[in-house]
Design brief:
By secondary structure, this protein is mostly beta strands. The protein is built from no helices and 9 strands. The chain has a domain of 78 residues: Immunoglobulins (Immunoglobulin-like). A 4-stranded antiparallel β-sheet has the order 5-4-7-8, with no helix packed on it. It is globular and about 45 Å long.
Amino acid sequence: MADLDGDGAQDLAMVTKDGDVWAVFRERDDPPLAARAALGLGKGFPGPLTVTGWDGKTPLGAWNVVAGTSEAFFGKLSKGPLTLKWRMPGGREQSRTVVVLRPVRVVLNEARQR
């Protein structure tokens, strides 16, 4: 499962024993509420990096993130804040809170949010 078409909702892809590829894209009338976390392709740490998501004190899971390959995906049921936490090698734990009103993508080793 991954956000294959970049619309903020997780889709499903699978490969059968015969080598056929099947993809099921999630369709929604309203924008999904989700945050994605990525590592930039620049000179920063390429990964893998474990990123956890938190809705207040409720954990939303953990994802291994690799620059240019995999991103973390955290969905929410309602609009509001979502906190991402990670630790770069040899560093202290870092966190960033984003307000999810629509799909949002955060690049962890850059200063900006997309």
